[in-house]
Amino acid sequence: MNNTENKSIWSVIWASSVGTLIEWYDFYIFGSLAPILASQFFPKTNPTAALLSTLATFAAGFIVRPFGALVFGRLGDLIGRKYTFLLTLVIMGGSTFAIGIVPGYESIGFAAPVIILLLRLLQGLALGGEYGGAATYVAEHSPKNRRGFYTSWIQTTATLGLFVSLGVILITRNSLDSDAAASIAKFNDWGWRIPFIISILLVGVSIYIRLQMKESPLFAKLKAEGKTSVNPLRESFVHKTNLKMVLLALFGATMGQGVVWYTGQFYAQSFLENVCKIDFEQSRTILIWSILFATPMFIVFGSWSDKVGRKWIMMAGMLLAILTYRPLFNKLLEWSDPSTRTEITERKEINTNTKPIGENFLRTVVTKTHFTDGMVLSETKIDTVYATPGKTTLKPDVKISKVVSSGTYWSIVAVVFIMIVYVTMVYGPIAAFLVELFPTKIRYTSMSLPYHIGNGVFGGLTPFIATLFTTIYLDDKLVGLWYPIVIAAVCLVVGTIYISNRIDPNVED
Q1: What keywords are annotated for this sequence in UniProt (predicted)?
Q2: One domain for residues 236 and 248
Q3: Containing domain of residue 379, as a range?
Q4: Cys-Cys link to 432, which of 8, 148, 308, 359 (CB 3.0-4.6 A)?
């Protein structure tokens, strides 16, 4: 590759990656703020049900991603890659901005969660068309012997989108007031809208960048020769040979890759906050550091797959996840368990605050317990003190939050880092693997559907199903892990037996 070609491919990667990163930012900021959105858009009478409803709404965006893959994949194979994933960017950005301005449940009642669900579905449809377009576009500009390396840059955008969303949330949360407690209160009340609203500026920049892009050379060549597909959906899913490749991609690669991706990042964050009860800010900075340290591994494994093949790197990532998830998550439980620590009894703090509500009072009792290793356990109990003698709150609202010591903090970062390395193993080579399974004229459609079923349905449901399991089987806090473990195990068996490790096995261009 000469200097001009090298400069051209990096321009393609930059233009594709910026837009895709922003789309992932838009998509994942919803999940990052799930506990707050639960209190804003659902009734507050049952916090657990509200959280599950929010996670279900979050998951709905994943479930419709395959439909987005069909709609936009077909467009991409008919009219071209460039304009199709430019359209998905506009839809995603508009939906995210709209979430930031929708009134809450207390203002418009059940219309609030309905509107949020509809916007979430639009986000899912848009993302269903984005990834396949970006990955295909980069791959079709890349030399065959470097497809793994160049497409792995697109693979970093999903994780970096989560990274950026977490960073924007923390910056916003800590900058609304000079007083930390007041800043947090303002963020929970209205400041959470800011990360959604500012996304429109990011989308505007990305649209400008993408408008400067040219069509994929391979697709442009097919179009000039009149060889583009007349019916991409039929050719992709009715023709026996191609349908076989679609099913193999789903059950032998993307299904397992999806659950590993969402377990190592999203469920890990949910587990730290909702099961381990780690402080909001600590749980997010733990993920930020882990992502920062692990992200270069996408490039490492993508590039390595150009030399040794895609299959065994992906299979190894799934196998490691299957064998180590329960021990790793169990460590998170142990390190956040205050019962194994020694309390400093003389440092116990109890602060009570009462606020009049009509004839009654809302009482908030905050108890802080300090431990010798540096952990601080905060228990906030909110109940109502009634003027009527003998009347009491049946079930006070109790919230627990833990700030772990520095040593424990970095130990948790190391564990989450390991889980994200598994993510890089299964995700780094996947774009090149999918591109090479399908011919150019139906590639956008054919690769998008198995990718978004594997990631959107099997992977995207991971936080919801795992959290749901923990609310049903209360005695086992690790029970939610059986879902990703079983899915990854099935995919490992199918992939090991049926996937070829040859590079470029089915590409005619």
Answers
A1: Cell membrane, Membrane, Transmembrane, Transmembrane helix, Transport
A2: yes
A3: 345-403
A4: 148
Retrieve residue 1's tokens. 């590759």
Residue type, 198: I
DSSP 375: -
340: its two tokens:
């194994």
Taking Cα atoms as reference points, which of 258, 259, 314, 247 lies closest to residue 452?
Answer: 258
Q: Can you read off the two tokens belonging to residue 333? A: 């439980």
Q: Are residues 409 and 392 in the same domain?
A: no
| CB neighbourhood size of 205 (10 A) | 12
Q: Is it the case that residue 454 has pLDDT exceeding 50?
A: yes
Q: How far apart are CA 237 and CA 235, in angstroms?
A: 6
Residue 217's pLDDT band, with cuts at 50, 70 and 90, is low
30 found inside a domain = yes
CA angle 245, 251, 254 (to 5 degrees): 90
Question: Are residues 312 and 380 both part of a single domain?
Answer: no
348-370: b (≥16 Cβ within 10 Å) or e: eeeeeeeeeeeebeebebeebbb
Q: Which of 403, 437, 453 is the last residue of a domain?
A: 403
CA 282, 478, 454, 285: dihedral to nearest 10 degrees? 10
* The pLDDT of residue 325 is above 50: yes
Calculate the alpha carbon distances from 332 to 268, 414, 473 in Å.
9, 11, 19
The residue-averaged pLDDT of 423-427 equals 95
Q: How many CA atoms lie within 13 A of 460 on its CB side?
A: 28
Q: What is the CA radius of gyration of the chain?
A: 24
Phi–psi pair at 477, nearest 5 degrees? -75, -10
The DSSP symbol for 460 reads T
List, in sequence order, the alpha helices (H) in 254-295: 255-262, 268-270, 280-294
